[in-house]
Design brief:
Layout (H helix, E strand, L loop, with lengths): L8 H10 L9 H14 L3 E8 L2 E8 L5 E3 L5 H4 L5 E4 L12 H4 L6 E8 L5 E9 L7 H55 L3 H27 L5 E2 H12 L6 E8 L3 E2 L1 H21 L5 E11 L2 E8 L5 H9 L3 H12 L5 E4 L4 E8 L6
Parallel strand pairs: 8-10
Antiparallel strand pairs: 1-2, 1-6, 2-3, 4-5, 5-6, 7-9, 10-11, 11-13, 12-13
């Protein structure tokens, strides 16, 4: 007997498609569940199946060797109409299956037990079932295991939907943050170009620099997805590109880093230090508007060696002021260094400024 459609078949199929499980590859976590079901229930066949339009499709199976069969011969098509659990001790004694070729053939399926897989709206999607070639019954313990495993399957599928929804929301938020940062940067750039007061223009350029650095870190973290480490080489390639437009045409910027990945907190700290040094050098180091800024970041075996240099005209007095943290940028650098339990070292002798930040790190490095 061919299974009848569910009374809410259209709604049921929509719910099934919402889970996006049909025609996906085999996965070990589902294969293990049917292996457990088969072993506990002592049956040669166990299946996780979903009842689609015109077919039943198997996400995982033991002892069957196929991924789908026509709905006309589906035993589970009957099972999803029977509540939460169905057990048929002898299929040939059941009117729904007595003429089913899967049961009448040799060897046919003479025993069936299935725990129904239900979607979040309560509609049946398929079953976790076990089959045997001889009539029999399960013990209460075996029935309980089937029910527990079926609930585990749906919790896994519901979790995947939740994660996908969260990732979709995250992508939308990331997109809006990126657009907002770009808009703010553009507005500040426009304001800076029109500003005649040099002090105000410098303040606007500082803000633009920080926003672009923040945007670069945001993009890097966005591309990481679920990973928890930031590539310094990739991040500072973005930073170098992002800072260059803020420098005069005659000022060259070169940033080199170790090819390692670090925690986002450390990446952000290094980014801010570099950003402040470059911004200060661009404003104060080059009276003729020509020069170079070099940054070298080495992270190895939980040790940091950060060196920032320019070839401007800073002397000892400027180095001493930087060490005292009299400016906003140098105060930011001191604060970040303190959070890393490090002490910034400033040096200048008339041929440019040098900042060194070195010592052990407490954050993870890969």
């Amino acid at each position: 007997m061919k299974p009848s459609p569910h009374p809410l078949e259209d709604d049921r199929l929509r719910e099934l498609r919402r889970y996006a499980i049909l025609d996906t590859q085999r996965e070990r976590e589902f294969d293990e569940l049917v292996e457990i079901a088969s072993e506990i229930c002592q049956t040669p066949v166990s299946v996780i199946n979903f009842i689609d339009h015109g077919r039943q499709w198997f996400k995982a199976e033991v002892g069957l060797g196929v991924r789908s069969t026509p709905l006309e011969t589906s035993l589970c098509g009957h099972a999803i109409l029977q509540g939460d659990y169905i057990e048929i001790p002898d299929t040939l004694a059941d009117a729904r299956m007595a003429d089913n070729p899967l049961c009448t053939s040799d060897p046919g399926f003479r025993f069936y037990a299935g725990s129904v897989l239900k979607g979040a709206n309560g509609l049946p999607l398929g079953t976790l079932c076990v089959l045997d070639h001889k009539p029999r019954e399960l013990t209460e313990h075996q029935r309980g295991v089937l029910r527990v495993l079926s609930r585990h399957i749906m919790r896994e599928l519901d979790l995947r939907i939740s994660l996908e929804r969260e990732q979709t929301l995250r992508r939308e938020v990331d997109h809006r943050v990126k657009n907002s940062l770009a808009s703010i940067s553009a507005l500040l750039s426009m304001k800076a170009r029109r500003e005649n007061n040099i002090a105000v223009r410098y303040a606007l350029e500082d803000a633009i620099s920080r926003i672009r650095s923040l945007s670069a870190l945001h993009e890097e973290l966005h591309e990481l997805g679920c990973q928890d480490q930031v590539s310094l080489k990739s991040l500072f390639a973005r930073i170098e590109t992002g800072l260059q437009p803020l420098l005069s045409e005659g000022i060259e910027l070169k940033i080199s880093t170790s090819d390692v990945s670090v925690a986002p907190e450390l990446a952000n700290s290094l980014l801010l230090v570099v950003n402040e040094f470059v911004a200060n050098s661009a404003k104060h180091a080059f009276s003729l508007g020509v020069g170079s800024i070099a940054v070298d970041i080495k992270v190895q075996s939980s040790q940091l060696a950060l060196v920032c240099r320019d070839n401007g005209n800073a002397g000892q007095a400027e180095a001493e002021r930087a060490a005292r943290g009299t400016g906003l940028g140098t105060r930011v650098i001191q604060s970040i260094a303190s959070s890393l339990n490090l002490v910034p070292q400033w040096h200048a002798s008339g041929n440019g400024m040098e900042l060194k930040l070195s010592g052990p790190l407490t954050t993870d490095v890969k």
